[in-house]
């Protein structure tokens, strides 16, 4: 086939309202968007969030605490270090709680403020913004980039394109390296990289995440938000008439049209919108906010900054495009009453669930014990008669010390009268910081106190130097055969 797929028009013919035949294109070739640079209050906020999030992302792996990386998810050793806390795989419930809080926090925030997360802090938005800064720095602002792309392929064009992509690739690879540095100690990873000793698995993830950053932020850009991100699709389920969104004041702006500054435009039947299309030119997803709220809108407010700048030049009041709610725009209540609308059922429901999960998680963390005990029974001989004539059950206890200092633990058991605890090597088990020890334990019980069947018992593991560090784990003792 000589033609590319995007060059083949796929159309249907429909009859419009005027009874005329109209060709509707079902597949349109993607058009590159060239966002125009704009200054303004909300642009400054976007710059702030880009810098703040990336200082944290790129800088945190290099921060040390207690002679180790402050934030490290050591999958190989199944240890997760979050500042002063050490979590083990048994603490998976905390990850579940974190995900639930993130989900309901996002739901609540979306109901209140729409897609402000997307416009200011979403990684896709942040890295696209960074890549656009690089593109603007190398190739120039909007018209210069359009002219360059439409111009002939000469030495200058090749030089600028190669420079831009080279910087993109460096940023992408450093992003991939930093990402892997959260799972492999980053200083070790840096040394391995410099000495070409990096493992194939680590190299794969550096390249994979770097390629994803390069592709998503450099090439796909707004297409990720429009076609790949599920959040854009289900956000409408959380929006209501009191959700704060970027809105065009149709009543004030229409009818739109050009005019001279100082002209009596109202006498000509015109509104405040001069149809300059600046709001479209600065939009990173290429929509016209004057067409109403659209799922593609990420709430970045670039159009607000652009419109306010135009209003200032025309000596018109600001706010033709602004953050507001549908009800406020329809004058159901004044915009100053927005905060009072937060006390609506949907927001309260999300807030209550979020608060409950957060309180439970914090209480649990406050009582979190830095020791875990896994118990495995001897399956070969469930019960046997010991030399002293008592019934014996054998166990293997795995003691995991989640503290960053070593402890000596003692083992006790309760649940049956006269129970004796015999620990291999003595009842003083030393476990190094964030280490683990396996120890054999035998329980002896008089046959008179352990009838046939299974009896619930508890192992109690306590740190000698800190009695507050104690854990109780349930198990069972098999009594004599009938």
Automatic annotation (TrEMBL):
Domain of life: Bacteria
Transmembrane segments: 45-63, 92-112, 166-183, 203-220, 347-367
Alphabetized UniProt keyword annotations: 4Fe-4S, Electron transport, Iron, Iron-sulfur, Membrane, Metal-binding, Transmembrane, Transmembrane helix, Transport
NCBIfam families: ccoG_rdxA_fixG (TIGR02745)
Domain 4Fe-4S ferredoxin-type: 263-292
Organism the protein comes from: Silvimonas terrae
GO CC annotation: plasma membrane
Name of the protein: Cytochrome c oxidase accessory protein FixG
GO MF term (any one): metal ion binding
